[in-house]
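Batch manifest line 203
LIGAND: heme C
JOB: complex structure
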Amino acid sequence: MLRIGVLLSISLALLILGSVLPPTNQVNSVPANVPQYTADGQLKFPANYREWVYLSSGIDMSYGPGAGMDHSMFDNVFVNPEAYKYFLANGTWPDKTMLVLEVRGAESKSAINKAGHYQSTVVMGREVHVKDESRFPGKWAFFGFDDAPTAKMFPTEMDCYSCHAQHTAVDTTFVQFYPTLIEIAKKKGTLSAAYLKEEPSAK
Ligand code: HEC
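JOB STATUS: finished
ARTIFACT:
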């Protein structure tokens, strides 16, 4: 009898707790998008990046992985929504920003399509640019993912770091090619010295 009483009061307590605490699967309780690492320091691929904010698509940009190849390629850039909101207010990126560059082949053969290209369903590569100030000496790091869910950081000797450091409009990112952001950077005065020298007309 005593045991049933205890069980009953436990169930009652759980019932009350359940109605007081918000359910964990609520839509507005989506966890923040922050970089996550394995124990040996590899970045976990942010698999939900297609739900992030879309910044731009480049086609056949000649610095890119498809440069000089005989077929066209698109690259699509996405950023986590928390960082995007911060950029709108400040003209630069907060700590824990993640940008994903997704490379896709360009197709042109379709019954309805007479000219131009559309994007293939096949992803040819994904690269991630992460700002994690306490983790990386240069604040930012690059990662490249094939099909694996985790990746090691690209070594800082790679040309990713030098090209991005020397030619980007804002904080090692190519904001000059992200049409919803470049005007904000201009207004907030956050354009890099290197970019202003390279593109004096941008002032
Ligand atoms: C010669 C210059 C150059 C080199 C080298 C280069 N990139 Fe970039 N990167 C660009 C440009 C230009 C863009 C803008 C793409 C667009 O507008 O679609 C870009 C954009 C990106 C982005 C989107 C976020 C951002 O920072 O703007 C990522 C991620 C990225 N590159 C990763 C890499 C990685 C990884 C490497 C090295 C393996 C690399 N890049 C090497 C020029 C370069």
